């Protein structure tokens, strides 16, 4: 019985670490956040913190997964994944540290198949493109979106525009990421 209690405490501590880490990274940025600072924020040593993760990169990947879960919950009342995408992008402007984390980790993970976040990003892009394409097809079936558009291509383009606008926004925070993605979406679906 003690083992189950210990396991539950470990899960609870890991969830606490990730909740606090989201706040710290959002506030301080990826480069401005150390494992030491995260450990101190949850009353652990660095070794104690990393006991819950395979590596520093695994910790930061878990933070990204948690961010995705929090965003999914935050915007679940929006029925359509395209609307959710635009809402998340708008929200990202309020969490620059997490955008920096996403951009840094995605660059490292795509260039190294052994990176802790490689599978996360590969799966995320496949899953999210499929979700966008399904949404586009539903809108095509209802007559809201032009039927001549290739849903898979448009979903890939929307993802690329989203990522590209994040990079531009990191260089110039006055850039309205969500407005640019919404513009591409509206331009693509506009009737001729």
TrEMBL record:
<feature type="domain" description="HTH tetR-type">
    <location>
        <begin position="11"/>
        <end position="71"/>
    </location>
</feature>
<keyword id="KW-0678">Repressor</keyword>
<dbReference type="GO" id="GO:0000976">
    <property type="term" value="F:transcription cis-regulatory region binding"/>
</dbReference>
<dbReference type="InterPro" id="IPR001647">
    <property type="entry name" value="HTH_TetR"/>
</dbReference>
<keyword id="KW-0238">DNA-binding</keyword>
<feature type="DNA-binding region" description="H-T-H motif">
    <location>
        <begin position="34"/>
        <end position="53"/>
    </location>
</feature>
<protein>
    <submittedName>
        <fullName>AcrR family transcriptional regulator</fullName>
    </submittedName>
</protein>
<dbReference type="Pfam" id="PF00440">
    <property type="entry name" value="TetR_N"/>
</dbReference>
<keyword id="KW-0805">Transcription regulation</keyword>
<dbReference type="GO" id="GO:0003700">
    <property type="term" value="F:DNA-binding transcription factor activity"/>
</dbReference>
<dbReference type="InterPro" id="IPR036271">
    <property type="entry name" value="Tet_transcr_reg_TetR-rel_C_sf"/>
</dbReference>
<dbReference type="InterPro" id="IPR039538">
    <property type="entry name" value="BetI_C"/>
</dbReference>
<dbReference type="InterPro" id="IPR050109">
    <property type="entry name" value="HTH-type_TetR-like_transc_reg"/>
</dbReference>
<dbReference type="InterPro" id="IPR009057">
    <property type="entry name" value="Homeodomain-like_sf"/>
</dbReference>
<dbReference type="Pfam" id="PF13977">
    <property type="entry name" value="TetR_C_6"/>
</dbReference>
<keyword id="KW-0804">Transcription</keyword>
